[in-house]
Amino acid sequence: MQFTSLILSNVEVSPGYWRMRMTAPPECASAHPGQFIMVRVNGAIDPLLRRPFGIFDLGTYTPAQSGGVSQPYLEMLYRVVGKGTAMLSTLHENDLLDLLAPLGKGFELRTADEEKLIVGGGVGLAPLYLLAKELVKNSKVRLFAGGRTRDDILCITEFERLGVECYTATEDGSLGECGLVTEALLRRLDQLQGKAAIYACGPHGMLNAVANIAATRNIPCQVSLEGYMACGVGACLGCVAPGHSHSSETPDFRCVCTEGPVFESGELKWRD
Amino acid sequence: MQFTSLILSNVEVSPGYWRMRMTAPPECASAHPGQFIMVRVNGAIDPLLRRPFGIFDLGTYTPAQSGGVSQPYLEMLYRVVGKGTAMLSTLHENDLLDLLAPLGKGFELRTADEEKLIVGGGVGLAPLYLLAKELVKNSKVRLFAGGRTRDDILCITEFERLGVECYTATEDGSLGECGLVTEALLRRLDQLQGKAAIYACGPHGMLNAVANIAATRNIPCQVSLEGYMACGVGACLGCVAPGHSHSSETPDFRCVCTEGPVFESGELKWRD
Amino acid sequence: MTTLAKPDMTVNLAGIPLRNPVMTASGTFGYGEEFAEYVDLESIGAFVTKGLSLKARAGNPTPRIVETPGGMLNAIGLQNVGIDAFISKKVPFLRSVNTPAIANFFGNTIDEYAEMASRLDEIPEVAALEINISCPNVKHGGIVFGTDPDSAASVVTACRAATKKPLIVKLSPNVTDVVVMAKACETAGADALSLINTLTGMAIDLNRRKPVLANVTGGFSGPAIKPIALRMVWQVAKAVKLPIIGIGGIMNATDALEFMLAGATAIQVGTASFINPGAAQKIAEDMEAWLAANGVADVKSLIGALET
Amino acid sequence: MTTLAKPDMTVNLAGIPLRNPVMTASGTFGYGEEFAEYVDLESIGAFVTKGLSLKARAGNPTPRIVETPGGMLNAIGLQNVGIDAFISKKVPFLRSVNTPAIANFFGNTIDEYAEMASRLDEIPEVAALEINISCPNVKHGGIVFGTDPDSAASVVTACRAATKKPLIVKLSPNVTDVVVMAKACETAGADALSLINTLTGMAIDLNRRKPVLANVTGGFSGPAIKPIALRMVWQVAKAVKLPIIGIGGIMNATDALEFMLAGATAIQVGTASFINPGAAQKIAEDMEAWLAANGVADVKSLIGALET
Ligand SMILES: Cc1cc2nc3c(=O)[nH]c(=O)nc-3n(C[C@H](O)[C@H](O)[C@H](O)COP(=O)(O)OP(=O)(O)OC[C@H]3O[C@@H](n4cnc5c(N)ncnc54)[C@H](O)[C@@H]3O)c2cc1C
Ligand SMILES: Cc1cc2nc3c(=O)[nH]c(=O)nc-3n(C[C@H](O)[C@H](O)[C@H](O)COP(=O)(O)OP(=O)(O)OC[C@H]3O[C@@H](n4cnc5c(N)ncnc54)[C@H](O)[C@@H]3O)c2cc1C
Ligand SMILES: Cc1cc2nc3c(=O)[nH]c(=O)nc-3n(C[C@H](O)[C@H](O)[C@H](O)COP(=O)(O)O)c2cc1C
Ligand SMILES: Cc1cc2nc3c(=O)[nH]c(=O)nc-3n(C[C@H](O)[C@H](O)[C@H](O)COP(=O)(O)O)c2cc1C
Ligand code: FES
Ligand code: FES
User: Fold this and answer.
1) Number of structural domains in chain D
2) At what angle do helices C253-262 and C226-239 cross, to 10 degrees?
3) Which H or E element spans position C231?
4) D222 CB under 6 A from ligand 4?
5) C135 given a catalytic annotation
6) pLDDT for the residue numbered C92
7) pLDDT-based confidence at A215, cuts 50/70/90?
8) Confidence (pLDDT) at C3
9) Which of A101-105, A245-249, B69-73, B242-246 has the highest mean pLDDT?
10) How would residue B201 be classed by pLDDT, with cut points 50, 70 and 90?
11) H or E stretch including B147?
């Protein structure tokens, strides 16, 4: 649905990473982890297109004025990379934003008897927090968070507060292990006794590595993709990703904004 | 010159009319009445072009921080008519603006022995205040201010404080006389004994009427024109106005941004 | 103040009565269904499907979309479900909506165009056909049909013979003289012209030293192109007798009404639906409000009413 | 970190050595003087005069300028001082600046073009000639020279015979195939090509029901047109051997470098100088800074370096 949202807060949580809380209508309170929103940065023509972001968190707050009736809010966690996100970071409490939400297909929560392994790279953590919040209700959850430097490892405390066991890895070794987060994931998988399921979001290279690990070990794995989007509602066909059986002769494209952004990794095409 | 200016205040002085004060470099302190500025409304591409505005006032203020050294400021008085002015009206103290100033050729102050008759229509008053401030130093000054309604008659108190005698006329009679300001001007001219000079700024129709009055009575008259401007520095040739001897066979265009915006009314082409 | 009478918003497009002049542009509104949540489909004049072809087409590799100053480029590559799946999967929805659906289509050869026209002719739910001639002619070295008057005329002639439904030809702006193209299509039997399709553009990623789009070039749309579209609609409207559908950067009711002044009988909303999925409905509503506020009783009185 | 070596910013444009690839575009930089307060004229590669004609031209009635989404339209009507006043009033200033000045010019007939070329050939302060072929041929029903390959070639041939100075031909984008035009000019003896000139556009004032511009249509420039310009530069660069000057919506160093990747040897800054009179100098400085930061020793290594 389309609605106008009031910004409740917008704070820099790590250099270049911002967390924005904004009001949402009741229909959004039941958004699934992994669903996303499309934000119109401003009403002018620059930037022209909406920007897609994951839903970092959902909750309710009690506004001072409305007589103590609690209202839903949603949060996004975003990284300033270009024009649109730079403008978002200049917005303040009480500014208005035009949103489409919730969009797309979120994560499948699956059954309780598996250990849930969440893998996030940089701002890829954004949609995984809401997921973790749901998963901890039934399952043991571990988080593998990777980034280039310590500044790219976000909101670990929040995950820990949920009771999630967190492993971190940075490419420069400034926080946690030095190296790729997939190494920590592999070690955990080696130790693992029972069933497990993987959930991943992050740079495409990381997702590719995770998907290959999952395929080799035959572990169910869901990934959340990014894709350049114009509409977010399945109309422009801009956001597609190659499906499992895709080749230039027998093309098989999946629509990220409506069939995804979350896919079973086996549905998609990966490099070996 | 081009400089970045800090907004010191931006207030609505009448419905739809705003007055903005902003810092200016020392070189601007000596701007002539009638010169103008080009404002870059924001750094994005929408709006793309700078917007031209007259200089309403110049002065100095003493910033809290800089150890009591006084700094020049300039003011503009603007009417919200479209996209650019609407955006300007949302700016706040401490926001920055990119300016070109001072531009163009201002009013000639002339000799002391004439009565100075200033005619302003609506926001056309903007560049006339700074003019009046200079003229009252030597001459008797009268202001004839016209507008559609009382809301379009601006800053009369400021003019009165300078010792200017003010006549107002509105089309709907909501303030001053009911009718056109040129009628009050004509009446004054009928009474006038000694020499006089006219200075006018406002809608083109009003300037045309004033120019014709001045021509008929052989009174020196300067008018400040508006023109759609891209550059403000004489390069695009977008802002031209037909000169006195202009015809489609023998064209004679004057560049408003460099030869004007102030012209002797006799230099220009008018409808009878 | 007088009470504002409800203006007459209806127009007649080559025999199809429209409740108002607002249509949606091909490729920007899916097959209609995608927008049902955001637009009351019965609040707009008509909608146009994604471009259809005989066989399903998978389209281009990604990235397919890039934003540019005031516009966007797309290189979707005409991905579509193909005529068979259109009939089996999309037409049932069209039946449920009381708004004319127009099928946009293309081919790689003149025969394919004609075959598409005759296939679409059989579908009662399709109110009219819109021919996308901005496609390369695979039999003639890939020259785009829509950039050569003879090729365009051949396509139109062949389609004309294959259908009795109103035939709209959608013109490409990538030509020296759009009037020549318009006249060729008029002579060949078009019932209406729609313009403009996208301009060809390109974007480069400096740091990667690569084109942004996998396809290198793409179709340029959005508010940035409006001045070109408006000029072409005005030129064509003066030169042909056919009704014209104005397209290109229409974001709001003001834009839409400007196109009507330039000579358009109806308009299509394209890129705007990506930014605001409810754009088409909002534009129709705001047009009506503008007419009422300005005492214009009939939207038809604006068509070509520009004073030059 | 290694220290950043000063990159080599020089390029050679058809025999004229430029200190850097940044030029200013005709009609947007006056005769140079107008910008002396804002730009160190010796910080840029070259500047191009307002388009010159044999006789002074007064240009069109006003309004001549209108802003559009991400761009602007102008219908100045080629107002200029004429060749005689150029020589007497503007050339002395050119002499004082140690930066190549390029004279942009046009005519109404082929003879006028040739005469202009021979007049300009005699002026030592003029480093090269840029022919604006986007003008109507008054002898041939007003068809624009730059939209017909034969007419364009005739103009170039005639000018070639009239001057030994480097001859740059400025191409119009209002054509079906810019490559055909480019090749025709190359064959006819051009030393370099500059592109693009403005697209033809239009703006309407809904409330007045009139075109905004007194001339009805105008030339469309600014960031909005960049995708079209970039595409055309890339197409032409692949097809001809001549050096190319990229023009169209260049607002910053990133834009400029993208045009070089697409195949331009130099670039021209147009509309950007209206918004920021210091734009050309800033772009040259920022390009150099980008090269240094990215370890590119020579700007020439970027020309046509796009990986497709
Ligand atoms: C489903 C989905 C969920 C996302 N969730 C988040 C999130 O929770 N937090 C976060 O920080 N980022 C997220 N992203 C990426 C985010 O959309 C981009 O970083 C953002 O659009 C960049 O906009 P910009 O104007 O700052 O950058 P610019 O580079 O100026 O953007 C130019 C264009 O490219 C597009 N674009 C640029 N980078 C990306 C990208 N990585 N993915 C898709 N489009 C891109 C923009 O949308 C825009 O259309 C998500 C992307 C998708 C598709
Ligand atoms: C020398 C000069 C001095 C001026 N001084 C003042 C002043 O002191 N106070 C004030 O309120 N206004 C003044 N104006 C008019 C002011 O420039 C316009 O009202 C303003 O540019 C409108 O911008 P917009 O984006 O709100 O309107 P839009 O209509 O969105 O503007 C679209 C385009 O039209 C141009 N434009 C619109 N109206 C005018 C106009 N009347 N004159 C020139 N260009 C116009 C804009 O600059 C812009 O390029 C002056 C104009 C000139 C030429
Ligand atoms: C993503 C996208 C896909 C398009 N697909 C088609 C198509 O299949 N057939 C067609 O005739 N036009 C297609 N178009 C062109 C639009 O219908 C329209 O002519 C163009 O976008 C200009 O209008 P706008 O500026 O309002 O978007 C497409 C445009 C976009 C942006
Ligand atoms: C106001 C104006 C006047 C122009 N005059 C000329 C001219 O006299 N001769 C010419 O060849 N091009 C002329 N041009 C075109 C520019 O040189 C340039 O090709 C075009 O504006 C595209 O570049 P831009 O988008 O950077 O402005 C003019 C452009 C503008 C905006
Ligand atoms: S973003 Fe438009 S179809 Fe997915
Ligand atoms: S505004 Fe450009 S010449 Fe006056």
Assistant:
1) 1
2) 30
3) helix C226-239
4) yes
5) yes
6) 94
7) very high
8) 57
9) A101-105
10) very high
11) strand B141-147
Which superfamily does A2-103 belong to? Translation factors (2.40.30.10)
Q: Which of residues 1-60 of B touch A (CB under 8 A)?
A: 44-46
Q: Tell me whether residue D308 is in a domain.
A: no
Task: Name which residue leads in pLDDT, B250 or B57.
Answer: B57
Single-letter amino acid code for the residue at C169: V
Mutate to test the pocket of ligand 5, among A36, A226, A239 (most ligand atoms within 8 A of CB): A239
Whole-number pLDDT of residue D1? 46
Q: How far apart are CA B217 and CA B214, in angstroms?
A: 5
**Is residue A260 within 6 Å of ligand 5 at its C-beta?**
no
More confident residue, A272 or B207: B207
pLDDT at residue B246 is higher than 60: yes
CATH code of the domain containing C102:
3.20.20.70
Pair of tokens at residue C183: 């006249």
Q: Give pLDDT < 50 ranges for chain C.
A: 1
How much helix, strand and coil, in percent to the nearest 5, is found in chain A?
A: 20, 35, 45
For testing contact with chain A, the best of B41, B42, B46, B95 (most A CBs within 10 A): B46
Residue D55, SS3?
A: coil
Q: Give residues with Cβ within 8 angstroms of B99, minimum separation 6.
A: B2, B3, B4, B5, B22, B24, B37, B38, B39, B40
Q: Is B45 on the interface with C (CB under 8 A)?
A: yes
Q: Where are the alpha helices (DSSP H) in chain D?
A: 82-85, 91-95, 110-121, 149-162, 178-187, 226-239, 253-261, 272-275, 279-293
Q: What is the mean pLDDT of residues D161-185?
A: 97
Report the separation in Å between the CA atom of D26 and the middle of ligand 4, taken as the mean of its atom positions. 5
Cβ contacts of residue D29 below 8 Å, gap of 6+? Answer: B235, D35, D47, D48, D49, D50, D273, D280
In a domain, C4, yes or no: no
- Residue C42's Cα: distance from chain center in Å? 18
What digits encode the pLDDT tens for the residues C88-128? 999 999 999 999 999 999 999 999 999 999 999 999 999 99
- Has residue C5 been placed in a domain? no
Residues of B in contact with A48 (CB under 8 A): none
Helix ranges (H only) for chain B are: 83-88, 128-135, 156-161, 181-191, 204-217
Name the residue with tokens 């800054």.
Answer: D269
ipTM of the complex: 0.95
D141 contacts chain A (CB < 8 A): no
Do C35 and C273 contact (CB within 8 A), yes or no? yes
pLDDT value for D297: 96
Query: pLDDT value at position C135?
Result: 83
- C239 lies in some domain: yes
- Burial (CB < 10 A; 0-12, 13-18, 19+), residue B161, is exposed
Q: Which amino acid is residue A100, in one-letter code?
A: L
What is the DSSP-derived secondary structure letter of residue D2?
A: -
Report the Cα–Cα distance between both ends of chain B, in Å, rounded. Answer: 39
| Nearest CA distance, C48 vs chain B (angstrom) | 31
Structural domain that includes position D297: 11-302
